[in-house]
Design a protein that fits this description.
Blueprint lengths: L4 H12 L4 H8 L3 H8 L7 H11 L3 H4 L18 H25 L2 E15 L6 E12 L4
Helix pairs in contact: 2-3
């Protein structure tokens, strides 16, 4: 997957500090997952947020103006090869239809919005190996009948 040029600059500046996405999120008033999405051009910042981020990471503000542009979202047309991203893709391949069936059973015919959406990543300690806990929350949007 080819990353936008700004992503490399942002990640290098973040690592040079060193700061976590959570640290940056606290400073910007956003969740760590939203900040990571911004770095990877999957979210859009306000001009004020780009200025604040530039100051925080000590980057030229003009270089970060692109973060206020509308992003092109998605991984692209191919199956991802990064092992972690592939597992998330595999999760949808294996559990997508069952989850869809359960959502329809509970809510009716519609979708879960990714526009009105949050995701949180938590670490759950486990004696057999720590676990990744993803909590996704999206507004249900029923399909319109006309």
């Amino acid at each position: 997957m080819e990353l936008p040029g700004i992503t490399s600059k942002l990640l290098a500046a973040k690592n040079a500090k060193p700061m976590s996405f959570a640290n940056i999120g606290k400073e910007l008033g956003h969740d760590e997952c939203w900040v990571a999405a911004l770095f990877y051009r999957q979210a859009k910042a306000t001009e004020e947020e780009t200025r604040n981020l530039a100051m925080l990471l000590e980057l030229p503000p003009d270089e970060l103006k692109v973060l206020a542009d509308f992003p092109t979202k998605g991984l692209g047309p191919v199956v991802p090869t990064d092992p972690l991203i592939y597992r998330l893709y595999e999760f949808i391949q294996v559990y997508g239809m069952p989850i869809k069936a359960v959502i329809h059973e509970k809510f009716g015919d519609g979708i879960m919005s990714l526009i009105n959406f949050t995701v949180h990543v938590d670490k759950e300690p486990d004696p057999k190996g720590d676990r990744v806990k993803l909590t996704m929350s999206g507004k249900f949007l029923p399909y319109k009948v006309w």
